[in-house]
Amino acid sequence: xxxxxxxxxxxxxxxxxxxxxxxxxxxxxxxxxxxxxxxxxxxxxxxxxxxxxxxxxxxxxxxxxxxxxxxxxxxxxxxxxxxxxxxxxxxxxxxxxxxxxxxxxxxxxxxxxxxxxxxxxxxxxxxxxxxxxxxxxxxxxxxxxxxxxxxxxxxxxxxxxxxxxxxxxxxxxxxxxxxxxxxxxxxxxxxxxxxxxxxxxxxxxxxxxxxxxxxxxxxxxxxxxxxxxxxxxxxxxxxxxxxxxxxxxxxxxxxxxxxxxxxxxxxxxxxxxxxxxxxxxxxxxxxxxxxxxxxxxxxxxxxxxxxxxxxxxxxxxxxxxxxxxxxxxxxxxxxxxxxxxxxxxxxxxxxxxxxxxxxxxxxxxxxxxxxxxxxxxxxxxxxxxxxxxxxxxxxxxxxxxxxxxxxxxxxxxxxxxxxx
Length: 420
Fold this sequence. Notes:
By secondary structure, the chain is α+β, with helices and mostly antiparallel strands.
């Protein structure tokens, strides 16, 4: 099929996933669209090299056919695209270097599994370093963080899941358990308050996994079957919940996701920078902090504080050692999104300390450090030149914010007579 014939293909004006095929019918590239007709047509415009780059220009030149699968919503297209990329590994989708920074949605192997977002480059390492919380399923890759966040907002309303809350049975006094905030607003099943049994929750996770796998038709059949069985056995409350889930699946409200898809052709993933600083006075009241910048903007909801514990309960003025403790504890939180870049306050000693922790734990995250002068003003940034040139302003902003946050936290604890 010629380029002109590909351009004139009669595709539907509906959401779906499209497949560019090569001379041997091999899949070269997979994409998703709000409108299959408009999106595929865009690959044959004169400005393709400007909007998509030379890589996809070569892909279009190699392609001899385009096939597609329609979906009922952009959300379903997003999930189907991810599952098909994972299955087929098309050469123009799966650049190994870039692919390592993509997001994955993972389900842990626990009595009450958690649903978390992790970078694909770190999923493989997690089972090796985690204690008691292995990864059972992973879905993705999702190249665009903003789209994934919008998708999860929709999905979590249909299938509420656990990410942080502790099951009531693990609490010291389950009778006093209260529902977490997410449970109160309908985004968690309330297992922290004993609202859902282990069997019910695992069944819900099975439904969620089918949805993430792009198996919507199979999921609907299972839900219909379970609803009929529940009604037949006069479990009317359960049947009603299943009916509501079916309705939500068939009437997905993904306007925000549609808007993102229409605005974006192929933009970069959300770039997350985490900055770290240590504050103390001669080793007393020592604290560490983490601040976050995403795409150049401060995200204060992601800030974290750490009271330094030290070795055997003894805290020293060893800033690289204290930094190691903070990073080790931070990387132990699988529920926190991992950064593209870490910005450390200090010189080569702190930079080496951070890289040593990452190597020991098996994480592949780039690190820079901000060197200060005697007036605590930034003098230079150590690290890869490409990050400094692209994200220099954000690195300095994150570092300055980390210093402010650390000093504020340190003074607050010192004023309270903080002791280890």
